[in-house]
Amino acid sequence: MIFRIQNQEMSASISDRGAELKELSLHGHPFLWNGDPAYWKSTAPVLFPYVGRLTRETYRLDGNEYHMGIHGFARSAPFHAEMSGEQAVTFRLEDTEETRRQYPFSFRFEVTYALEGETLSITYTVVNRSERTMPFGIGGHPGFRVPLDEGLHFDDYMLTFGEPCLPDRVIYTDSCFVGAGREPYPLADGRNLPLTHQLFDQDAVVLANTARSVTLHSGKGSRSVTVDFPDFPYLGIWHTPRKNAPFVAIEPWSSLSARQDVEEDLNCQSDLIRLSSGASFRNRWQITLKD
To answer: Cβ–Cβ contacts within 10 Å for residue 22, how many?
Structure first.
């Protein structure tokens, strides 16, 4: 089922399957990727309780072996939705027998979408209802149309960070697992990353140590998308490799994929969030549109 929220400026549609944002428009103009399966059938998956790939879709925990697909199970799970007026909706996922086979914890996971002016806020809330510490990763994966303006092309656009920064690129292997080390990733003028389709020939560009705000825009157009992610340490930038895909995904992540050929022990993976029994975690990020 699709739930719609709106105000005078913006509208958003979200599916209860995966709590996935399916449409985001400003003054009637669509900004979110449309899910064309010729390039990428998704639009904005929610990543939980793991970000990225697990080696052989397998991990270990407390001496036991578990299996989970890429980006965790929330992105395809049925959520329960509760509207909070015309401008906000909260989706809730709780553990089931099926989720516990993949991830042996009792939890409540909520995703809240709320509109305010030209901004959509997305809030993730996780409650650990287990009797032990719960390790997890979480993140967003929204795709945005490129070009945003009529008559422009993909390579007319760039990503501009909110302030000068010196990012590091996380090295990924050809099979999209974490490799050895990181390398400096200089930005043009200290802030700008010009977009080309060839940028994604080897899959995603994953950055650490960036400014926590980035804007998709073109000097030749008027429309833009700004993603603010103050509490996420990593940013993934992606479109379908080796295709002239007319979108770019801007992905705030809390953690990274497994290492190449390592079946990770989630108690030892250092970048995961660790939530104590009975505790709750909250992380809020935003998408602002301009036309």
So the answer is: 20
Q: Mind spelling out the 3-state secondary structure of 68-85?
A: CCCCCCHHHCECEEEECC
User: What value, to the nearest 5°, has the Cα angle with vertex 200 and ends 148 and 177?
Assistant: 130
The residue ranges of every structural domain in the chain are 2-290
Beta 88-94 vs 234-238: how paired, if at all? Answer: unpaired
At 75, phi and psi to the nearest 5? -65, -20
pLDDT digits (tens, 9 = 90+) for 227-283: 999 999 999 999 999 999 999 999 999 999 999 999 999 999 999 999 999 999 999
Q: What are phi and psi of 238, to 5 degrees?
A: -155, 145
Which residue type sits at 163? E
Element (H, E) at 174: none
- In terms of C-beta density within 10 A (0-12 exposed, 13-18 middle, 19 or more buried), how is residue 55 classed? middle
Q: Is the pLDDT of residue 83 over 90?
A: no
Q: What is the DSSP letter of 105?
A: -
**Torsion-angle region of residue 19: left (phi > 0), alpha (psi -120 to 50) or beta?**
left
For the chain, the straight-line distance linking the first and the last C-alpha, in angstroms and rounded, comes to 29
Beta bridge mates, 50 = none
| The amino acid at 29 | H
State how far the Cα of 127 lies from the Cα of 212, in Å rounded to an integer.
25
Instruction: Please give the structure tokens belonging to residue 98.
Output: 């099926």
* CATH among 2.60.40.10, 3.90.280.10, 2.70.98.70, 2.70.98.10 for 2-290: 2.70.98.10
Phi-psi sector, 265: left (phi>0), alpha (psi -120 to 50), beta = beta
